[in-house]
Each structure stands twice: as C-alpha cells, then as structure tokens.
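Handout for the seminar on molecular recognition.
Each group receives one record of this type.
Step one: identify the two inputs.
Step two: read the structure output and locate the region that could contact 1,3-dihydroxyacetonephosphate.
Step three: write two sentences on what you found, then compare them with the reference statements printed after the record.
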Amino acid sequence: MKKFVVANWKANKNIKETREFLVEFNNQILPENVVVIFCPSLPLLKAFEGVPYFLGAQDVSAFPTGPHTGEVAASQVAEMVDYALIGHSERRTEFKESDEVIVAKIGQAFACNIMPIVCVSNLNQVQILADAGFKADDLLLAYEPLDAISTGKVGKAEDVKEVLAFIKEVQTILPDVPVLYGGSVNSKNAAVYAKSSEIWGVLVGNASREPEELFKIIQAYA
Ligand code: 13P
C-alpha cells in the first residue's frame, strides 16, 4: 500500500533556498512505496521543474478565473500541481475561511482534476464534507489536531491512539477515505505513525524544510 509524505512549506523559502534544498534532497534514493508531495508557495514551483516528485498548491481560490484580484484559480495551477491543500487550520483561523468557502474550494479543485488534501481538526468538519456530497475517492483528508501543530508535543503512544480513534470515527462518516496525520511530525516520531496501517501518511510542516530531516521521515516508511 502506498503511503503519502506531504511537505507543507507554508510561507517559507525563496527560489535560491529551494534550489539549495533540492540539490541536497535529490541525492537521496526514496522508497518506492511512498508518494512524496511538495507543497511550496506558488512562486517556488518553477524551481521544481523536472524533479521527480508530486507537487501541490497550499490553497486554491473558491472562485473560477475572473475578476478576483489576488486569487489563484484552480484551473491556473492545474498545469503545475496534482494536489492542493484545502482548509488548512491556518487558513481557517487567520483568513476566517468558512466551511462553505472550503467546500467551494474543494469543488474548484475537483473540477480541475486536482486532488484536494482537506485538512480537518474535528469530526464536524468531516461531516460537512459528507453532507456536501464528497465521497472517499474525491479527496484525501489530513487530520491535524490544533494543539499538535508546531508544538512538538506528539509522538507518544497515546497520541497515536487518539489519531486512530479519530480515523475510526471518520470512517463512519466517509467510509474508506484515506486519512493522513499532521502536527509536529519529525524524524524522531515519524516511525510511530508509519507503522499504523490505518494512517495513510503524514503532512509535515517545519520538519519538511530540512532535506535530511524530510528524508528520514520518508525512510520511516521503507
Ligand atoms: P508542523 O509539522 O510544523 O507542526 O506543521 C504541521 C502542519 O500544519 C502541516 O500542514
């Protein structure tokens, strides 16, 4: 079974730093069972030309192309990416994105053949996706508990138990939907998530910005 390691660089790195990262990272031989997806800021995508990894946007607009200054429509990034993060908690909090907006964004991505990776932190957010008519094949979910993001307080047996309990509940709402885990994943705790067959992979923030650290996380799936 394929596992996913998704690198969410958030608003970090410029082109030069991205090229330096890739020079180091490209030397690594990655396990074939892992789908590696980089989600850099859009201006960095050109530095990824020709690299053998999947790419994802960190967001797409809820609108199609048209008079929406500052927005990037899903159809505009569809030639460059296969995936898009949607509904990340930072967008829900800092940009006040509502469930309605998130559903519209998923619809836009889906219509442009971009696979949405929808970030959720509670079951209500999953229920909203089911109520909107999305099915397991339409998206990947990433469970990111709010108190686990960039806190470093994860990786213990009870944390994994909590993730598995959440995934079990998710399956009653959206049967068979793939669920990744995100929140303070690093090279030291990656193995505990990697060994659970119910967790389809990880969504990594801070630790994905260092080539060696990201490589070690991917290696946890080898
Ligand atoms: P950290 O890995 O830095 O906690 O970030 C998690 C996250 O928000 C990934 O989308």
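Reference statements: The CA atoms of residues 57 and 80 lie 9 Å apart. The first helix runs from residue 15 to 25.
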